[in-house]
From TrEMBL:
Pfam families: Ferritin_2 (PF13668). CDD domains: Ferritin_like (cd00657). InterPro entries: Ferritin-like_SF (IPR009078). It comes from Ganoderma boninense. It comes from the Eukaryota. Keywords: Signal. This is Ferritin-like domain-containing protein. Residues 1-18 form the signal peptide.
Length: 328
C-alpha cells in the first residue's frame, strides 16, 4: 500500500493546479492546456511502450554499462509524464472543457531498438521544453502560467538525462530554444494524427544527410514545401541563447563551428534572421520546419560512465541518422 508521504507527493501538483483560477480564462489558455496535454499523452505512451518492449539485454546490447541506469530513468520519466497528463486533464475539466483524446499516436520505427528509442526520446524531451517555453506568452492567467512553469522545469531535467543517455553534453547551452505550437507540430505531427489540436502545423522538414552532423557538415533537406527551385530559399539555424538565427543560403547550409547541442533548423523565403523571441519571430517567411539536429562534438565523463566505448563515439552516428529521419 502506498505510504501517506507518497500519496501526498502525488497529490501536491494536483492541489497547485486545482487551485481556483480566474474565470476570465480565455480560449487561448484552454488551447494551450489541451495542446500540452496531447504532448504529454504522446510522451507517456512512448515510454510505456518502450519499457514494455525492451529487456535488460536490449539495453546492454545497445552499449549501456548497466541496463538499470536507463531503465530507472525511463521509468521515472514515464511516471512524470503520466502525472502531467492527469493534472492537465483535471485542470481542463475544471475550466469546463474536455481533453483531446482522439489522436492517433503512431511511433513507427521509433521503437525498433534501444538506440533508436533513446534518440527519439532525446528529441521528444527537447521538444517538450521548447513547447512549454514557446507557449508561455500565450497564457494570460498567472496561476496557470506558474503551474505550466512547474512542469517545464521537470521536462528540462528529463532533457538533461536524455542528453547523457545519448552521449551528449548534459547541459550543452545556457539557454533553451522556444518553439511556437505550429513549430512544435512540424516535428510532432510525424507521430500524432487524426485529431484537431486547433493549430495548423508548419510543413515538416527532414535532414537527408547520412552519418553524424558536425561543424562543417553541409546539410541537405526534403520537405513537401520544397518541390522546385531552391533559389531564394534559406536555411536558418536557431540556437538557445542567440538573439537571432543563423541564416544561410539553402545550397550552402553548412553547420558553423562552435555549436554544441540542439539546433532548430528552418527553411525560409527571406534571409532576414528569425528572432529567438517567439513573440517577434517572422513566422510568415517560414516555409518548412523546424527540424531538430544535435551537434555532439564534446564528450563528458558522465556519458563515458553510462555508455561503454562512448569515448570513441560508438552508436552516436546511428542515433543521429535515426533522429534526422524521425525514426520512420
Amino acid at each position: 500500500m502506498p505510504s501517506f508521504a507518497s500519496l501526498l507527493a502525488l497529490a501536491a501538483p494536483l492541489m497547485v493546479l486545482g487551485a481556483p483560477v480566474n474565470k476570465r480564462d480565455t480560449a487561448t489558455n484552454l488551447l494551450v492546456l489541451k495542446f500540452a496535454d496531447v504532448l504529454e499523452q504522446f510522451e507517456s505512451q512512448f515510454y510505456q511502450q518502450a519499457l514494455q518492449k525492451f529487456q535488460t539485454s536490449d539495453f546492454t546490447s545497445a552499449g549501456f554499462v548497466d541496463a538499470q541506469v536507463p531503465v530507472q530513468q525511463f521509468t521515472q520519466i514515464q511516471s512524470d509524464e503520466a502525472s502531467h497528463e492527469t493534472v492537465l486533464e483535471s485542470v481542463i475539466q475544471s475550466l469546463g472543457d474536455q481533453a483531446i483524446t482522439s489522436c492517433n499516436i503512431n511511433f513507427g520505427n521509433a521503437l525498433n531498438d534501444v538506440p533508436t528509442m533513446a534518440a527519439t526520446a532525446r528529441v521528444v524531451e527537447n521538444l517538450g521544453v521548447a513547447a512549454y517555453l514557446g507557449a508561455a506568452h500565450l497564457i494570460d492567467d498567472p496561476v496557470l502560467l506558474t503551474a505550466a512553469g512547474s512542469i517545464l522545469t521537470v521536462e528540462a531535467r528529463h532533457q538533461t538525462i536524455l542528453n547523457v543517455l545519448n552521449n551528449g553534453v548534459s547541459i550543452p547551452q545556457a539557454f533553451d530554444i522556444a518553439l511556437l505550437p505550429n513549430e512544435v507540430l512540424a516535428i510532432a505531427s510525424a507521430f500524432i494524427s487524426g485529431c484537431d489540436l486547433g493549430v495548423q502545423a508548419n510543413q515538416p522538414l527532414t535532414i537527408t544527410n547520412t552519418g553524424a552532423v558536425q561543424p562543417g557538415t553541409q546539410l541537405t533537406f526534403s520537405s513537401p514545401a520544397i518541390n522546385g527551385s531552391t533559389d531564394g530559399l534559406f536555411c536558418q539555424m536557431l540556437i538557445g541563447g542567440m538573439a537571432t538565427a543563423i541564416p544561410l543560403p539553402f545550397d550552402q547550409c553548412i553547420v558553423p563551428q562552435g555549436i554544441e547541442g540542439p539546433v532548430a533548423i528552418f527553411i525560409t523565403s527571406d534571409i532576414q534572421p528569425l528572432n529567438n523571441n517567439v513573440r517577434d519571430r517572422a513566422t510568415q517567411v517560414v516555409l518548412a520546419g523546424p527540424t531538430m539536429a544535435f551537434i555532439d562534438t564534446q564528450k563528458q565523463l558522465l556519458g563515458e560512465l553510462v555508455l561503454a566505448g562512448s569515448s570513441s563515439g560508438s552508436n552516436g552516428a546511428d542515433r543521429i541518422r535515426c533522429f534526422h529521419r524521425l525514426c520512420h
